[in-house]
Amino acid sequence: MSLAVALHFTMTIVFVSCENKVKDLTPPSVSQTDFLPSNCDIYYLGDTIQVHFTCMDDTELGNFNIEIHNNFDHHTHSTEAEDCDEGEEHHHGEEEHHDEDVEGAWVFNQDYAIPAGLKEYTAHIEIPVPKDILDGDYHFMLRMTDRAGWQTIKAVVIYIIVAP
Ligand SMILES: [Zn+2]
User: Fold this and answer.
1) pLDDT per position in the chain (164 positions), as tens?
2) Ligand 1: distance of its center to the CA of 57 in Å?
3) Which of 7, 135, 140, 143 is surrounded by the fewest CB atoms within 10 Å?
4) Rounded to the nearest whole angstrom, what is the distance from the C-alpha of residue 143 to the centroid of ligand 1?
5) How far is the CA of 67 from the centre of ligand 1 (A)?
6) Are strands 151-161 and 41-44 parallel, antiparallel or unpaired?
7) pTM for the complete prediction?
8) Cα 74 to ligand 1 centre (Å)
């Protein structure tokens, strides 16, 4: 092996090993077009919420959390695509979710793992709506995290009503 070839070989190895250590600086993304539940979806007590979305990360996906909490106080998150209600909206930060512990209101909070090494993942999850909760406005929140810890939040408004 000539010196030139040996040097080139060494440089290639160095380049490849550097490439593997590139830092993940980009938060994961969540598809907007095929995301379910849709904003303003209506469910009856006892229905099943079909959750569907595709998420992507340029390096590696981590895991995600789904949380459903009541919106009886008509608060908003900055991540909603649009508002369903006419008027009476006020904004507050997540740390101000003070009045969610309404007795009888539904609280759902579940972590989900994504298999290691994936850059794209499509989730299909069924979440049963309990029959014995208070009906009303709820927020469905998805918190998607990549392996490096970057987080993307998507929130939609859903309505849970008493079956006719
Ligand atoms: Zn909320």
Assistant:
1) 555 555 555 555 545 544 555 688 999 999 988 999 999 999 999 999 999 999 999 999 999 999 999 999 888 887 655 566 543 334 444 544 545 578 999 999 999 999 999 999 999 999 999 999 999 999 999 999 999 999 999 999 999 999 98
2) 25
3) 7
4) 13
5) 9
6) parallel
7) 0.77
8) 8
